[in-house]
Automatic annotation (TrEMBL):
Name of this chain's protein: Small heat-shock protein, putative
Record family assignment: Belongs to the small heat shock protein (HSP20) family.
Source organism, top-level taxon: Eukaryota
Residues covered by the SHSP domain: 12-111
Pfam (any one): HSP20
Amino acid sequence: MSTFVSQSSFLDCSDTQTNTFNVYESQNYYLLSLSLPNILTSTLQVKYMNNWVVVKASLLLSSNAPKFVSQFPLPTNADGSHLRAKLQGDVLAIVVPKKQTYCTEVDIISF
């Protein structure tokens, strides 16, 4: 079961257009759902850089091709190097798996 994560825990740096986004958390991944109306889909880029997800695209609204740019910091337990993105209609879904945690028991020896 996934839970909704407050948007305030992620930073939206879009300065060209207001877009709706939601963040959900499950046991194994984070899901960022971003509404992207009026974008030129052929220009859509999703990148992972220094623990941030960066979304860029050109907008359809003008011949000057204004840019949409949004940045989302990832939690420290997110594995951004394995993120996946899917655009369906005007909604972009970005799935970011969580890093696997390992617990190893260590034998204690006496000297």
